[in-house]
Input
Amino acid sequence: MTDYIHTPVVQSLIALQEITWFNPKKARFDDVQSTLPLQMSDMLDASDRLTRFAPYLAQVFPDTAATNGIIESELIAVPALQLALSDVMNLDIPGRLWMKCDNQLPIAGSIKARGGIYEVLLHAENLALAKGFLKTSDDYRLFDSASFRELFSKHQIIVGSTGNLGLSIGIMSAKLGFDVTVHMSSDAREWKKVLLRSKGVNVVEHTADYGVAVAQGRQEAMQQDTAYFIDDEDSKSLFLGYSVAALRLQKQLIEQGVVVDENHPLFVYLPCGVGGAPGGITFGLKQVFGDHVHCFFAEPTHSPCMVLGMETGLHNAISVQELGIDNQTCADGLAVGRPSAFVGPMMDTLLSGVYTVSDDNLYRHLAILVDTENMPVEPSGAAGVSGVLRMLTAGRSYLSDHQLDDKLPQATHIMWATGGDMVPQEERKNYYQKGQALLR
Ligand SMILES: *Cc1c(COP(=O)(O)O)cnc(C)c1O
Output
């Protein structure tokens, strides 16, 4: 066995312990910004594309009409949760805790409504432009027409997923008229498959995990030149779709009167699977807030692929399974054994750290979130809850290294809730009861 396996961090991961890891390679943003493979202009381009499609989305998805076709979630203060967490740990939590409600995002009920839908729209736009069906100055409600659906019906979209990405890609692609196939990993919930089939999506079920489902999808796509594969393990488009959240969050913070600057630090806690969603948002937030934002990823103790890749420097050249970690977790949206190829390397200089959470704690935090804020999320969506507690305990030296101790009373902490709104009532009740039982 090679050396990396003997580091204390990797040993703790193998032992399935909850760890809090601080990234030794994090750099000053000004020093690395120009070296990044993507820039602010890429994010603005993605944002403009979503604006062009907004009239179409408002027309075909009534739940986006209220926001004029912009797929966005609320940012809410969660004082009752903050108090409850403070009680659980017997720890004062200075500053203010907020929740970013991506569990309630329209169309797909999870954070995947950002990146997944964006990449489908980008592909549809490219096809329509190439076939001479469209100019970018047109009213995009054109996409809601028989001629466009007829065009897209001759094109396939293929994706591999643990569930939520499949939902967002499947629903959006089917609406546009694409012939869409979702390869679902073994951990995908039954209701997600049923829902997709009801929308005319082809669902292929696999008995293996996410990595295999993605590989199968990729292979199928290579056999047809009209097929487009959405590659969750390596997609810059997905990533940029997610990044737009940072521009929207900036606006929401201003609207709420929340200041982010040298003396008012922002901490953001993002659940991480393959890394595209939390990575895209971190990239965006760094572009917007630079060194004033501190981004942390949260992973299940059984699927700590990003921290393993970053700690060893091997990124997608190592999987958790190679260390005997089983990648079995109740957090199906995070059940990923190998991180994205390009997100980890980009996070090397941007990310503040990663912490891992046990399944039992995901259930506990999910129940606390219901009790305090009446906010049902799925287990993956609860991984951000413990971020503020980690920061104030294991994060003490990070805080002093960054001269943040005396700024904590003016700090803003955001737990990014990433999924849950489409979970059926019965399943939701089971999640809650599990959490309740563990809290007793
Ligand atoms: C997919 C997902 C994530 C993480 O996104 P990645 O791009 O896989 O890192 C987090 N929460 C939920 C609910 C998800 O479905």
